[in-house]
Amino acid sequence: MNIGVKKNKKFDLIVWGATGYTGKLVCEYIFKKYKKTNLNWALAGRNKYKIDGLISSLKLKGIPHFVADSNNKKSLLKLTKMTNTICSTVGPYAKYGTLLVEACIESKTNYCDITGETHWIKEIIDKYHTKAIKNKVKIVHACGFDSIPSDFGVFYAQNKIKENSGKYASKISMRVISMKGGISGGTIYSFLNIIEESRKNKNIKKVLNNPHGLSPNKDLFDSDEEDLKKIIFDSTSKKWIGPFVMAAINTRIVRRSNYLMDFKYGRDFIYNEALVFGRSILSKFLGYFRLIPIYLISKNNNTLLKSLLKSFLPKPGQGPKVNSRKNGYFKFRFYIFNNKLRALVSVDGIGCPGYGSTSKMLAESSICLALDEIPIQNGVLTPSVALGNALLKRLEKNADLKFKIKFL
Ligand SMILES: NC(=O)c1ccc[n+]([C@@H]2O[C@H](COP(=O)([O-])OP(=O)(O)OC[C@H]3O[C@@H](n4cnc5c(N)ncnc54)[C@H](OP(=O)(O)O)[C@@H]3O)[C@@H](O)[C@H]2O)c1
């Protein structure tokens, strides 16, 4: 365990994509929370005028800032050579993210982001996992609402159950009890980009549909769970449940964590996620209504419908208003099994999941990556494998996440 944090460069941390909707929130959070500490950070974006506007609107006077271009590797290398860690909010990552990861590996700079683009993570694993290990670098994707609550919910639950019973759980079912929040233009753009790319390229569809898509070979696993695709009555939560759109990334991240730790939880460890609708038959029917927009966007090839949706949904750079960010929340429940149900873990977050909460999770992940004593493992990692207990502490202390276990 631990050490391996390099502190040899000018900055601890650079936030890349600072002028975007989420980037601004990350900068604001770091500035307010860490201004009286020794954290040595800077911000960067592609547009000097927007950066100047950000500095004056958030009163970030004194924070060093830089301009670079995600299509120009030389400009990215200038950034990555100056810092021990890069925190990126520039997406869709499949469009704008690859050269930055390459630059980080070449400069021996740690990297984290909030991508939920499974097919792009797979591309990065295939291209760079071995090189990252060789250069002793950590590339950490999915440090936002997807997939920190899921990945750390399992990490926390497994450590607690092992302490209590001497064994890891053989199955964990996560149920989204409730959540409230908005969506940004950047997230919509990234989601539409996944659909568009998977239509053009059948291999991308295969990765997205593969429950073990982020591990090298699905034959390594003895479990082969599909994502839930319909509404059913769940014997675990005793409620109607349906597909949770983010299970497509979260379950892959959790399974990759297990793979990266040499199958510590077992090759037959089962993990699934679903959205809880309620106990009554009415909640089942309301569940169908909640799934309609996602179904229409993902299944329908109708460009007219898409342009109609795009015309009233937020554009890149836009997102939920302050109140919606503050009043948002999420409540996840993890049912922990070892033959029978043994414990219930809750992971609750305050703040709009995708932005209020995500910006804190990402900021804390990047600071943890830059400053803390963390596991020594390198490569293209998951948040729990890269940052372990050090980030768990930060999430509870600073990012308004609460983890609790009740043994049954
Ligand atoms: N995992 C999660 O829970 C989670 C939550 C929120 C967001 N996300 C993801 O985070 C990403 C950002 O979302 P957002 O809503 O913040 O998006 P956004 O407001 O559109 O911001 C995107 C950022 O990327 C920059 N950018 C775009 N093209 C660029 C290029 N060619 N070179 C350099 N920079 C470029 C933009 O610069 P300008 O400001 O100059 O336009 C902006 O700073 C999306 O992929 C989204 O899906 C994930």
Order of strands, main sheet, comes to 3-2-1-4-5-6-13
Let me know the number of strands.
Answer: 14
Q: What is the structural class?
A: alpha/beta
First-last Cα distance: 31 Å
Regarding quaternary structure, how should these chains be classified?
single chain
The largest β sheet comes out as: 7 strands, parallel
Cofactors, ions and other ligands in the entry? NADP nicotinamide-adenine-dinucleotide phosphate
Query: What share of the residues lie within helices?
Result: 40-55%
Strand % is 15-25%
Order of helices and strands: EHEHEHEHHEHEHEHHEEHEHHHEEHEHE
* Number of helices, counting only DSSP H or I runs of 4 residues or more: 15
Mean pLDDT figure = 92
Question: Any idea what the radius of gyration is?
Answer: 20 Å
In words, what does this structure look like?
The longest helix has 19 residues, at 281-299. The relative contact order is 0.16. It contains 15 helices and 14 strands. With 408 residues, it is α/β, with parallel strands linked by helices. Strands 3-2-1-4-5-6-13 form a seven-stranded parallel sheet, sandwiched between helices. Helix 14 crosses helix 15 (383-398). The chain has helices spanning 21-34, 48-57, 73-80, 93-96, 98-107, 118-134, 148-165, 185-200, 202-209, 247-260, 281-299, 303-312, 322-327, 353-371, 383-398, and strands at residues 11-16, 41-45, 65-67, 83-88, 110-113, 138-140, 171-180, 232-234, 239-242, 270-278, 329-338, 340-350, 379-381, 401-407. The model has no long low-confidence stretch (mean pLDDT 92). It is globular. The protein starts with 10 loop residues before the first strand and ends with a strand. It folds into two domains: 11-143 and 356-399, NAD(P)-binding Rossmann-like Domain (Rossmann fold, 3-Layer(aba) Sandwich), CATH 3.40.50; 148-353. Bound molecules: NADP nicotinamide-adenine-dinucleotide phosphate. NADP nicotinamide-adenine-dinucleotide phosphate binds next to helix 1, helix 4, helix 8 and helix 14. NADP nicotinamide-adenine-dinucleotide phosphate binds at residues 17, 19-23, 45-47, 50, 69-70, 89-93, 96, 114, 116, 144-146, 184-187, 190, 316-317, 319, 354-355, 358.
